[in-house]
Here is the input.
Amino acid sequence: MKNSKVTKTKKEHINTGNAKITTDIVIFTIEDGELKILLVKRKYEPFKGRWALPGGFIKEVETLEETARRELSEETGVSGVYLEQLYTFGEPKRDPRGRVVTAAYFALAPKHLMSLSASSGAEDAKLFSVKKHPELAFDHEKIMQKALHRLQNKIQYTNLSWSLLPNAFTLSEIQAVYELIWDKKVDKRNFRKKMLTLGLLKPLSKERTGLRQRPAKLYAFKTKTYVELRRFF
Amino acid sequence: MKNSKVTKTKKEHINTGNAKITTDIVIFTIEDGELKILLVKRKYEPFKGRWALPGGFIKEVETLEETARRELSEETGVSGVYLEQLYTFGEPKRDPRGRVVTAAYFALAPKHLMSLSASSGAEDAKLFSVKKHPELAFDHEKIMQKALHRLQNKIQYTNLSWSLLPNAFTLSEIQAVYELIWDKKVDKRNFRKKMLTLGLLKPLSKERTGLRQRPAKLYAFKTKTYVELRRFF
DNA sequence: GCAAAAGTGTTTAACATACACCCATGG
DNA sequence: CCATGGGTGTATGTTAAACACTTTTGC
Here is the structure.
């Protein structure tokens, strides 16, 4: 009775589902008044010589996030940054070598954590402006655009901007972070009101001096861990 | 000069990154005044006999989304539903058979698309209340909880409730969708005001009659495609 | 004194929240 | 006539948006 209707049996085959898994990391930072991403020049085929997102194959016993952190560290020398999973890309033809599925990660780092020169695999890692960068290998342009949208959305309802700023910063500096990410100006008075009433910041007793202008008060984030807000900008 | 400092060369090895890829689908619907998910009883080891999310291994030439739709159709007979990628789970020990990475998908369907009895592989597919369901195989409980949070968040700023409702529905019925998903009551007058001013619905010239109560006006969604709103509930 | 960015309030409109009673129908 | 859910409005508080001038410093 129960097994009378087995017209189209489905089986789990041993030799199906095989693929190679990579992670690729889109890591943003802010440098020289521009939103930038970190790219590496490929040393091997395919796309040898082209710029690509840092990333690589998973190892037997690491989680996807561990792979992402390891590859980021090995290829660019960057570590200790904010990292979250972005999206998984698995189109059959996205890699000419065969079926390669990539779990893309999204990362943010303040510029001072991006000291590229000193690190091992970093000879060919470089920051590029998001608005003007070389053509990327594979489907990395698509991945990068998705990461950018994630960033633009997420700073609306989280405190994530801490991960792009140094410990102490002025209100103008944090405003600039938002403006660069959204690629538009925001109103200074409304921005400050909002930012201060959100209660994420604590004022420091120092000021930024030495510029030929009025000194600016310095602030720091109360917590440098991920916080979601009820509503935001 | 450039290659003088190759202390720790990184290579892309041929035999690394291997894994099997599956997709698993968390599909929600509303039935008998409850938010439910569709589960299938496993026919094979591991976890033979346990309830699990529908899903399975990717084929050579399909995208991840195609895998999800195919598995959903084969295992439960359900097709033509709203589907989006949820998250990718790749812990090394999540599957006792070896390294299996799953790209989890999130799906929504109105109850009338969940006619399970008529379909091929559906003898062991069944709807369970989200609040009370059997213990799940693998890490599927974690996946389900993540999907539930996605659902609870996403109906705040999208028109996604169309995908849980029939073509025509009353305002009380759509309110019930929100209340079931959020597991809390909302104010009737405020809900209706909000829903109608959002402009997503068009009134139909019919009413729901035959119940021993005042007939309720019927509405339909203007568009049954994904729309993101600026803000919502 | 001047260039440059810091700092500061008010007004208006939109939206969120709280809340209670009458209406139309089928039985 | 009664049980059931359908249907409606107002008042208050909160948040968003628009908008321009004075202050402090280094040179």
About this structure: Residues 20-140 of chain A form a domain with the Nucleoside Triphosphate Pyrophosphohydrolase fold (CATH 3.90.79.10). The beta strands of chain A are 18-31, 34-41, 51-52, 55-57, 82-89, 100-108, 125-129, 201-208, 216-221. The longest helix of chain A spans residues 140-157. Residues 1-10 of chain A have pLDDT under 50 and may be disordered.
